[in-house]
Design a protein that fits this description.
Blueprint: H1 2-11, E1 23-25, E2 28-30, H2 37-68, H3 73-80, H4 84-96, H5 108-114, H6 119-132, H7 136-143, H8 161-173, H9 178-194
Antiparallel strand pairs: 1-2
Helix pairs in contact: 2-4, 8-9
Length: 208
């Protein structure tokens, strides 16, 4: 038994990492020196799944506590240090969508966007968002079109994965929705190209 404990200690790497394993810590991840590409890639996939589903998990957790431990669940929420108002919103959305109606391909925020609608309308808008690949902003604007000029649909743009990732990182760096960042970048490019020709301020005529 003692030998096993010694060997386990020897296998532990500096920073808390253990040989061949990526460990979670309160301040981040601890990587072993010998982690393989496959292990690193799988860890990213797991983290992505957890991050995208965390709001759902928390909502379901609070719903269960509300139903099962009516007089005690608030104490548990306070004990784990989570903001009750945020959890209450998650729980409200969780109750609006039973598991069978949740869309694995759409983030929690899309469900939140249509949670106040009747179930049939929720399904209709989520179907559209899934089929068209809408962001949350696009879903909101499609549901609540504001006044202004007629909107046209841009052609679908195909780009290399590395280029898309680079642009997503740029949008994240300035805390802007990716779709909004793309539109802003296109506007800047249009202004740059039109200004030398004196066309920047000319109105755009709609086709008759």
């Amino acid at each position: 038994m003692r030998v096993d404990k010694v060997n386990a200690v020897r296998r532990r790497r500096p920073g808390g990492a253990v040989e061949g394993r990526i460990l979670t810590t309160p301040v981040g991840l601890a990587f072993p020196r010998d982690v393989t590409f496959e292990s690193w890639e799988q860890a990213g996939q797991r983290i992505s799944r957890i991050a995208s589903s965390s709001a759902r998990y928390l909502g379901d957790w609070l719903v269960y506590g509300q139903d099962r431990y009516t007089g005690r669940y608030r104490r548990a929420v306070e004990a784990v240090g989570l903001d009750y108002r945020t959890l209450r919103n998650y729980a409200w959305i969780a109750r609006k969508f039973e598991a069978s109606r949740r869309r694995p391909g759409l983030p929690f925020q899309h469900h939140a966007e249509v949670a106040a609608l009747p179930p049939a309308e929720q399904d209709r808008w989520l179907d559209l968002a899934e089929r068209e690949g809408w962001s949350r902003t696009a879903l909101r604007e499609s549901r609540e079109p504001g006044p202004g000029p007629l909107r046209a649909v841009l052609p679908r743009i195909t780009a290399a994965g590395e280029a898309v990732d680079r642009r997503r990182r740029a949008a994240t760096a300035v805390d802007v929705d990716f779709e909004e960042w793309v539109v802003a970048a296109l506007d800047q490019a249009a202004d740059r190209d039109l200004e030398p020709a004196g066309l920047r301020s000319l109105p755009v005529r709609s086709a008759s």
